[in-house]
Design a protein that fits this description.
Blueprint: E1 12-17, H1 38-50, E2 55-60, E3 100-104, H2 121-127, E4 132-138, H3 140-153, E5 157-166, H4 172-181, E6 185-187
Parallel strand pairs: 1-2, 1-4, 2-3, 4-5, 5-6
Helix pairs in contact: 3-4
The structure holds zinc ion.
Residues 60, 62, 68, 79-80, 105 line the site of zinc ion.
Length: 188
């Protein structure tokens, strides 16, 4: 089996987007096979740890009310409400204790699909000498896409771990094409 894990090197980081209970089967905004990404993603976490690379995990962390909710004319059912079980990382995700959590979706005035949107993440990564991101998580066509496009705009190299991501709508293939056009390297 081909694997790119051997390409991990200094200046890389693993960025895991929103692997939270509400985005997995049984959650408030379930993504088909959302939990199927966790086993292959844990292997990437182990490889990044073995290579001494930093691991970032973003989380949707909404107040009630939130502008993305149906109840407030937004596109989604209420999900990932702060301090609820639905907002917790999936219990099978083996995040190391020193993983850096990027909290987003906390604003009252707008949603933050991208882990870069008004979080300061790009500045932080540059300060820590990170040039390249290995990107995974949920959902492929919403928050992973927005994060990938922002990362490219900010000048980072991006490799999408497509085995470790799933779409919430049938637009998954289009999301991957959009990422490719932006210069994202798509891994199997
Ligand atoms: Zn959200």
């Amino acid at each position: 089996m081909r694997s790119s894990k051997g390409a991990l090197k200094a200046g890389d980081a693993l960025l895991i987007v929103d692997v939270q209970n509400d985005f997995c089967p049984g959650g408030a905004l379930p993504i088909r096979e959302g939990d199927a990404i966790i086993a292959p993603l844990n292997a990437w976490i182990a490889a990044a740890e073995a290579a001494g690379l930093p691991i970032y995990a973003s989380r949707d962390w909404h107040p009630t009310p939130h502008p993305s909710f149906h109840t407030h004319d937004g596109p989604w059912p209420p999900h990932c409400i702060q301090d609820t079980a639905g907002a917790a990382f999936h219990p099978h995700l083996r995040l190391p204790a020193d993983a850096i959590v990027v909290t987003k979706g906390t604003r009252f005035d707008e949603d933050q699909n991208s882990a870069f949107h008004h979080t300061g993440l790009a500045t932080h990564l540059r300060r820590h000498g990170i040039h390249r991101l290995w990107l995974a998580g949920l959902a492929l066509d919403v928050c992973v896409l927005a994060t990938a496009l922002d990362a490219r705009r900010e000048g980072f190299a991006v490799h999408l771990l497509s085995e470790c991501s799933r779409p919430v709508t049938p637009e998954g293939a289009e999301a991957i094409e959009q990422m490719r056009r932006a210069g994202v390297v798509v891994e199997d």
